[in-house]
Amino acid sequence: MTATTVDHELIPRRGGARHYLLHAGWIRAIWMTALFGAFGFGLTAGLRWWGDWQPIFKWTPIVLVSILVCAPLGFLAGIGTFDYWARYAIGSPTVPDDHSSHGATSWKDYFKVNTDHKVIGVQYLVTTMVFFVIGGMLALLVRAELAKPGMQYVDPQTYNGLFSVHASLMIFLFVIPAFAGLANFAVPLMLGAPDMAFPRLNALSFWLLPIAGVMMLSSFVVPGGAFACGWTGYAPLCSSHQPLGAVFFNQGVQWAGASSVMTALNFLVTIITMRAPGMTFWRMPLLVWANFTTSLLVVVATPFIAGSQFFSMFDHVMHTAFFDPTNGGYALGYQHIFWFYSHPAVYIMMLPGFGIVSEVISVFSRKPIFGYRLMALSLMAIVVLGFSVWAHHMFVSGMASYLRVPMMITTLLIAVPTGIKIFSWLATMWEGKLHFNTPMLFALGFLSMFVIGGLSGVMLGAVPIDIHVSDTYFIVAHIHYVLFGGSVFTIFAGMYYWFPKMTGRMYNERLGKLHFWLTFVGFNLTFFPMHLVGMEGMPRRVADYLPKFAGLNMFISLASFGLGMSTIVFLYNMITSWRSGPIAPSNPWRGMTLEWQVSSPPPIFNFDVIPQVVGSPYEYGVPGAQHAILTPARATEAEVPVQ
Amino acid sequence: MRRGSIASLIGLGIVAGGIAAAVALALPWLPTPASNEADRIDPLFWFVIIICIVVFAAVIAVMAYSIIHFRAAPDDLSDGPPIHGHTNLEIIWTLIPTLLVTAIGIVSAVVLSRNDALGANVLRVNVTAQQYAWSFSYPEANGLTSGVLRLPKDRSVLLTFHSKDVIHSFWVPEFSQKQDTVPGITTTLHITPNRLGTYPVICTELCGLGHSVMRTHAIVMTPAAFTKWLHSQATAVASPDAGVAGAAVFKNNQCSTCHTLAAAGASGKVGPDLDKLVTYAQTAGQPLATFIRQSIVDPNAYVEKGYPKSVMPATFGSALSKQQLDSLVQYLISSSKKG
Predict the structure, then answer these.
(1) Which candidate in A239, A396, A435, A520 is best for mutational testing of the B interface (most B CBs within 10 A)?
(2) Which domain holds residue A65?
(3) Under an 8 A CB cutoff, do B116 and A401 touch?
(4) Peptide bond before residue A439 is cis, with ω within 30 degrees of 0
(5) Angle at A224 (CA atoms; ends B256, B165), nearest 5 degrees
(6) Which of A136, A157, A495, A611 is spaced 20 to 30 Å from B205 by Cα?
């Protein structure tokens, strides 16, 4: 049998209703979602009928099985993430070299299952930006309600839903997957690899994400309202005292978590096995190191949050009593399991940013990274220490009191490797030739804001101070300095930095700088005063507060609206530049890492020839130094610097 | 490095540190302490703040100096010097932070152990938290309960917490002490109030729809006034007059947090207006007394339109004694008929 005949059998004739109904895509996704949902409904109701469990139509288990488990699987099957594996499983002919779903030639290809890591990276980034904007709007609604004491616009159930969904979207649908998107795009290129190790798994990981996001958002429209127990979902409030919306949170986390774990495994295998010849571990760019360490954290820690959410959901739906003390459960058990993931998750949301900033500062300072090996080792130190500090979220929880001092010591010690990184970035800039393009501005914004977030973290590590400020607005300020001043600034740095490589076009530098300054000023005006109201006595997660905090809250709310507006500048710049920005050269920043040695955007399989890595990726200022040798045709391409 | 650049670096550090110090000093960060524990946390806070300001100033100075002095012209395509590292420098900036955080750890551990150490003649108070009310009982006064925490000045107080439903957290900012109340386990907190006054008691752990209104007061009294109060209250609750006893039950159980009742001067808006109880009972089609009793013991049996289900804790039925419940129902009947 020749290859042609196989192709003929596999790909149905284009056009015709049969093709559109049966071929992977949105139409098949719609009917398969409905079909699988109906199956879940029938299965649950049928089993209840068979077992004579009254009432037969009990909605909590039916919604769980039908809408939160079966329908998403139907969507994934319909959109086509399982097609190859399904053919393989039933013994149909598969074509390993069929690249019809690889790479993008039109905008429509971004709405299909695609196995190209560059397309998936862009899919991730666009999806996460959508959830960033939605999550930001939820935050603005929270700030509108908080502008004045008392209740103005929303009822308590809606208010508690607003901040819970805001945090869940920002964490699970923005920061974590935005880093996964940037790394998806950059890591295989930096390694000199043609793609990720498991491209089909990579596509599946992406398509799990919109499911998680839609699930969390749609909890607003189910009877009883959105899940309203905060993104931490503490038991027994979330497991026994919440409406159906809580199950949407429990399950949303599972889909997002599954996506994270699959991506992390993919990164680990890719980084360990697919480095170009000569790319030893000590020649890997720090972005690759950062994603290597992050993936270790994800793989080890994420199953714990999955467990905590399953137990919580079982308590809610099946009346188990993992965390229900009235039936012998242990309420604090939830917090221990939850934070055993969620503290490392702070580093999952930070280490990839460290990687981005290392790339950006080195390139725009025109100097090698200062203390490269210590930078990589400090990432590893954070991974190890990061698993030994979780109970610092629980100093006032009532856990065994002897745990507090050891957890305080490890918490304070983790400041040391973090400090090493900050000092090394400063030393990298020292005596450099600094160019303040937008990525560099965001990297420097990160550096200054993260120092404040890190120092307030040291204050929180000291148990007696933590006892005073725990669960207050001081915590809200601290996490936003870490996750917004830290993670979000680095995500912006990374998006501007690789924008030319991703799209083949340059963004507008003037608008980029405007976006930076609006964000930087708006961010500080919004979040800095929160330290003060928290210290003075305003708890977090409240819709109403003592009148003495009215002035500062009004100020914070006004500043937050300004901060929200800054995003419009960013979106305008990204959209217009992608459509009609000037064509980008292959290496606009004169970087040495491998992604800059190929065209913008890169060829479909990244490298026409396998690069031979011969040295460090940061040898700026070393005469004649090279990171890798590509074939002569590429190396002579004109390099036009863009300022 | 040239001498000029060192001077310039130090100058930038002084400016950055000065601004940070001004922010730290000019704003009223911590509430005025009202307990021995807060008095110990206050200096610890300043000790850590000073270290933070020094580190912050150093980082910002180096960054600002680099931004000013190492800015490259747009057409300058040259690279910086290929400096790959400096072992001694790296050892220094590993060791100094280690020493600083070790110092913070030692001082914190000392403060923590002193704050947890009970004094002589400890006053024990049992605290019960439920959605969305605090209740304080005094074993010294035969279990007298109150919705307001009253404490004598300068006496070591050990609060023992129980929660009836979900996790709550007890915080008085002026005492700088905080403790979660966890269903199923008993937690404790030590406070030694040392300043007379009335302070807010705030729930800081999200506990449901009424979380932001789960507040009450802590009143620090002179020991003599405290003893006098204990005696007078113990008498009121035991009063044979149902009106007096019912009013005490209403007050001690914090009903006013969520309900309006003119007779008790209550103006809560979370739950239904109790001045309209007569109308509500008619709508529900029940006799007034039966309706009130059922609404307290089993709040979800009938939910007044416009109010969410389960917003009223279902725990009062078991929390109140039969006598307390009778006097409360009696009190609500007589006060709502007036309104």
Answers:
(1) A396
(2) 9-90
(3) yes
(4) no
(5) 50
(6) A136
Contact between B55 and A455 using a beta-carbon 8 Å cutoff? yes
Distance from CA of B317 to the nearest CA of A (A): 16
Whether residue B29 and residue A467 make contact (CB cut-off 8 A), yes or no, is: no
User: Does one domain contain both A236 and A373?
Assistant: yes
- What pLDDT, on the 0 to 100 scale, is given for residue A125? 97
* Range 519-548 of A in CB contact (< 8 A) with B: 532, 535-537, 539-546
Are the C-beta atoms of B204 and B169 separated by less than 8 Å?
A: yes
When pLDDT is averaged across residues B173-182 and rounded to a whole number, the result is: 96
**Whether A127 and A84 share a structural domain:** no
User: Does a structural domain hold residue A97?
Assistant: no
Over the stretch B62-84, which tens digit does the pLDDT of each residue have?
A: 999 999 999 999 889 999 999 99
Interface mutation target, options A145, A357, A467, chain B, most CBs of B under 10 Å: A467
- How many separate domains does chain A show? 2
Q: 3-class DSSP state for residue B132?
A: coil
Looking at the fold, whether A39 and A82 belong to one and the same domain comes out as yes
User: How many Å apart are CA A67 and CA A245, to the nearest integer?
Assistant: 12
Q: Do A311 and A251 belong together in one domain?
A: yes
Query: What local confidence, expressed as pLDDT, does residue A97 receive?
Result: 66
- Disruptive mutation site among B204, B216, B267 for chain A (greatest number of A CBs within 10 Å): B204
CA–CA gap between residue A386 and residue A290 (Å, rounded): 14
Distance from CA of B269 to the nearest CA of A (A): 10
Residue scoring higher pLDDT (B263 or A634): B263
Prior bond of A236 cis (ω within 30°): yes
Say which residues have a Cβ less than 8 Å from residue B328's Cβ, sequence separation at least 6. B246, B249, B250, B296, B320
Nearest to A69 by CA among A30, A45, A40: A40
Q: Which amino acid is at A565?
A: M
Q: What pTM does this model have?
A: 0.89
pLDDT of residue B140: 85
- Compute, in degrees rounded to 10, the torsion defined by CA atoms A427, A433, A435, A436: 40
Tell me the C-alpha distance between A154 and A157, whole Å: 8
pLDDT band at B51 (very low <50, low <70, confident <90, very high): very high
ipTM: 0.90
- Amino acid at site A435: H
Which stretches in chain A have pLDDT values below 50? 1-10, 12, 633-643
Q: What is the CATH number of the domain that holds A294?
A: 1.20.210.10
Kindly indicate the confidence band of residue B1, based on its pLDDT and cuts at 50, 70 and 90: low
Q: Shortest Cα distance from A176 to chain B (angstroms)? A: 25
Nearest C-alpha of chain A: how many angstroms from B122? 20
Q: Is residue A512 part of a domain?
A: yes
Residue A14: what pLDDT?
59
